[in-house]
Amino acid sequence: MTNIEESSQKKGRPTPKRKEAQASNKISSLAPASSKAEKQRAKDAARNARIAQRAAYLRGDENALPARDRGPEKKFVRNYVDSRRSIGEYFLPVIGFVLVLSLIPVGAFAVAGIVIMYSVLLYSIIDGLFLSRKIKTEVSKRFPDKSTKGLGLYGWLRSTQMRRMRAPKPQVKTGDKV
Q: Which is deepest, 16, 27, 96, 146, by most CB within 10 Å?
C-alpha cells in the first residue's frame, strides 16, 4: 500500500476522547501489576539496604566508601587526622560563642568576638597548611609508589570537621600513634 491509499482508508474505529487517550498513556505496559503489600515490601527492602549501606560507610568498610574515600593512603590520612586535635574542629563552636558575644550591646564584646573569630580562622588555616605538608611527607614515606595529590586538602578538610560529625567515623582515638 502506498501513502495515498493509506490516507484514503478509514481506520474502522472512532477517535478516542482526550481523557481516554491520556489514561491509556499513564498505564505502563512494562511495570508489573503488583499489590500494595508487594510494593511496601520492596520499599522496606530498599530502605533496609540503604540503612545497611550507610552503617557500612560510617564504619569505614572499604567496599561501602565512595571513590573519594577509598584506598590505603586515604585511610592513613583519616587515621592521622583523627589521632590529633585541631583548632579547626572547634571553629563552629567558636562561631556560636562569637554570635552570643555579638548579642551583648557593648561594643567591646562585639570587637572581641570578631578578633576571636578571625584569630581562630587564621590559626586554623596555618595549622591546615602545616598538617597538609606533614600528611604529604608521611604518605610519601609509607606509600612511595602512590601519588600525594589531593591528600593534604583531604586531611585538612577532615580536620576542620567536628570529630562527632566526621564520616566515616574515626577509627582511632585522639593521641593514638598512627
A: 146
